[in-house]
Every structure is written in structure tokens, then in C-alpha cells.
Amino acid sequence: MVIAVDGPAAAGKGTLARRLAAHLGLAYLDTGLLYRATGRRVLDSAADPADAAAAEAAARGLTPADLARGDLRGPEADRAASAVAAQPAVRAALLDWQRDFGRTHGAVLDGRDIGTVVFPDARVKLFVTASAEERARRRWLEQGGTGDREAVLAALVARDAQDAARAVAPMKPAEDATLIDTTELDADAAFARALAVVEARLR
What we know:
By secondary structure, this protein is α/β, with parallel strands linked by helices. It contains ten helices and five strands; from the N terminus they run βαβαααααβαβααβα.
């Protein structure tokens, strides 16, 4: 069984997907880490994440150790991940990896195009979102609650626009996805709503 959990940054999809996987006894994959690790490898090589050749080489050279790095979060990593994710060759390099993982284990996968591209035949599809202001508040708190909160909001909105407008695998809900808006929900309430959807689909 594959459960696809898509949505924009800081909507709570990662927390929700991990909890669903644990509850259902399924493997969990944060597909965003693949792109973050790819972007970080490009930065390490002093190349531009928007350079298609450099980004593809980084994607094809990924190792499990790359996914365990401690520097895959933050504004620089966010920008690099979004830039490499817009490259068709990068998405192609990572697509088989994601599909093999899901088909081998059964899994809950979270990302931006799981239900539309990676597993369009997923048994359950969720699209988790929240208002930009609430997502910016969460991301700002993740970063310690210091610094310019408006800058966090601006960066998040720019990332949303880039991910939704890219020519390859844009971020959007699958037609048969269930929308879960977490703006007014805490983690427990979001999990309860998602689990109810999963159980209804499985019945």
C-alpha cells in the first residue's frame, strides 16, 4: 500500500506522514530530502543548483549518507532544493528511486508530486496545506523564533510560486486527493482527520 502526502512547505505534511507510517506499520520516505541532498551536493561542488548538468550529476551520485546530513534545512538549502527540483533530468534520476522504495516496502511518501507523478495510482492521496501566514509562523518558530518573520514569509511564498509554476511536475493536488487544511489544526487533530480518510479509503 502506498499513501501519497503532498503539499507546500511547513504545512505539517512531514509530521503527519511520519505519524501515519508509524501507526500503519509502513515505511516512510521524505522525498524532499532527496532534492535537498541533491542541492547540497551541488553547492558543495561550488556549482549553481540551476545548472542542469551539475544538478543531474549530483542526483545520480546520491548516497544514503547524503540523506543523513545535518545541513539539509534552512534558506540556502530550501533555495537549492527548489532549483534542482525544477530540472527534468534530476526528477528523472530520482523518480525510479522513489518508486522502487514504495513498491518494495509499501510506504507513506511525502513531497510535492507524489500523488500526481510518482504514484498516480496510490491507494490514498492527501494534499496538506495551510495559509501562507501560518506556515511562515511555523517555519519562523522552527528557526528559533528570531530574525525577520516577514522575510520568512516572503521566502516561503516565493518557494510556493516556483514549485507551482515549474514546467515539470508542478506542485498541485491530484484530482482524487483529499485536501486537509491544517491552518487551525494541531498535530493531533490533523492526524485524526488524515487517519479517518485513510481508513475510509481502505474500507
